[in-house]
Amino acid sequence: MENLPVQQLDHLKDLLNQRERALRADILREANLQDDYAQLASEVPDPGDSSFANLAVDLGNAAVTRDLNELRAIATARTRMENGSYGECIECGFQIPFERLQAQPAADRCAPCQDMYEKTHADSTRGASL
After folding, report:
1. Confidence at residue 112, expressed as pLDDT on a 0 to 100 scale
2. Is the Cα dihedral 106, 69, 92, 115 positive or negative?
3. Tens digits of pLDDT across the chain (130 residues)
4. What is the number of other CB atoms lying within 10 angstroms of the CB of residue 106?
5. What are phi and psi of 95, to 5 degrees?
6. Are 71 and 101 in contact (CB under 8 A)?
7. What is the pTM of this model?
8. d(Cα 119, Cα 113) in Å, to the nearest integer?
9. In a domain, 1, yes or no
10. Does some domain include residue 38?
């Protein structure tokens, strides 16, 4: 974190806060939609409508899971800010460029290490298949 000036670090904190607010709003919206779909699935005797409602709930659950994972990454980024390791790649130890952190403030790997991680952990990033 020593390579990040206070102004840049404050900007990244603001980005994390904005993203957290957006994710929390998305989760709340998804929860409300799921209630609507669950009600539709239980009220309508039509198998097609019920099937659509079930699919919509499953997709909503996947979206909420994705958003919760990102909230966890934001919390982890804040912890790294507090302990002074923010901006340092957890794989190679080099500094993550500010431009990458600006695009993805919760990033814990530099781009090359993230690319390698995604190639070697392809199954872990993929959710359940339909």
Report:
1. 96
2. negative
3. 457 899 999 999 999 999 999 999 998 888 877 666 656 556 656 666 666 666 666 777 788 889 999 999 999 999 999 999 999 999 999 999 999 999 999 999 999 999 999 999 876 555 544 4
4. 21
5. -70, 140
6. no
7. 0.76
8. 10
9. no
10. yes
Q: b/e per residue, 79-96, with b = 16+ CB within 10 A?
A: ebbeeeebbbbeeeeebb
How far, in Å, CA of 91 to CA of 37, rounded? Answer: 42
Range of the domain at 36: 6-125
Helices 47-83 and 6-43: crossing angle in degrees, nearest 10, is 160
Overall domain count for the chain = 1
CATH number of 114's domain: 1.20.120.910
In a domain, 130, yes or no: no
Q: Say if CB 114 and CB 107 are below 8 A apart.
A: yes
Whether 42 is covered by a domain: the verdict is: yes
Q: Give the residue among 80, 79, 40, 78 at the shortest CA–CA distance from 60.
A: 40
pLDDT at 75: 97
